[in-house]
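Run log, item B.
One chain of 341 residues. Sequence copied directly from the ordering sheet:
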Amino acid sequence: MEQPTIDFKALYQQMKQRLKHVRRLRRLVRCLICIIYPTALFWFAFCLFGGFLIDRSDYETSVATGQYVMIGFVIFCVLHYVFMKSLNALNKQENDMMNHMVSQMFPLAQYTPSGGIDVRELSASRLFSSSSVSHSSISATGYGRVDIPVGEQYMTIIDVGITSVSQKDFSVWNFFEPLYQYLVRPILGSRIESTMHSFRGMFGYCRMSRTFKGYVMLLPDHLENKVGYLAQTIQGFKRKNGAKFVHLEDPEFEQLFVVYADDEVEARMILTPSMMRQLTQLRQYFKRDLMLSFSGNTFYYASDTLDGFLRPGRKSLSNEHLLEQLYREIDFCRTVEKELK
């Protein structure tokens, strides 16, 4: 694998002060989340049961309780205002930082902070839907987009949040699920906006100079056995498209990926020994799951990143290694495109 010529340490030193400011804003937002959301949860409980408790108390206690509730409500409104201002400031700072990072590492790239996503591309990848025709069960939100020229084409990488909107049978859990999702998960989650999604992370695609026959999907070797939305998508894809498991003669590759295809010959033409070595190296460097698919003339890939993909210093803001990781993730599609040629 080619080593990048960018001086990541110098780039980090150049951005160090701005990164410290982002870190302080993140701490402030996290502290406010830990105050506001439990307060909102308490208010919800009070609305349900407070009237019953007040009716059982005497007049003086009822009046005092009402006064305390009003004071608490005013404090909550002030804190919520500060929270929204801090969150907006954090988003602006992160977008500015990402714009600078991308322009330094990929001078020809175009970064769009609020870049949208075509749900048809998500559906065509079949990584989030078992059918390439119907995409009514997918709702997606883009949190940033990078477009980079690759030969005569462009590759697109998006920080996306995907939510399944399939119908569910009524149950007690489905009744309380919105309460958990919008009031409890933000306290525990890495990023407040990620808590509403079943998938948050990187989704990329690139048009190739060749057209693939059939469809090939590469999944983490453990994903099929997981219980959840993605596992159900995989099972649905296998049923609807007649995909078959493809065994390849690379033990190291098969420790990381499971391959499904409706044309085994085409899968072997794509996944050459050289390509499997490249994908193995890239997966080991990423240190997290990768999902890939080849369909028509397009290569698709996705990776789950709960704390956001196009966000500077997602896990830490204290060293330059995260800049190098971001470079590898964005450059991933170019690496695969060169190998396919």
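Observations after the first pass:
- The chain has a mean pLDDT of 78.
- The radius of gyration is 24 Å.
Flagged for discussion on Thursday.
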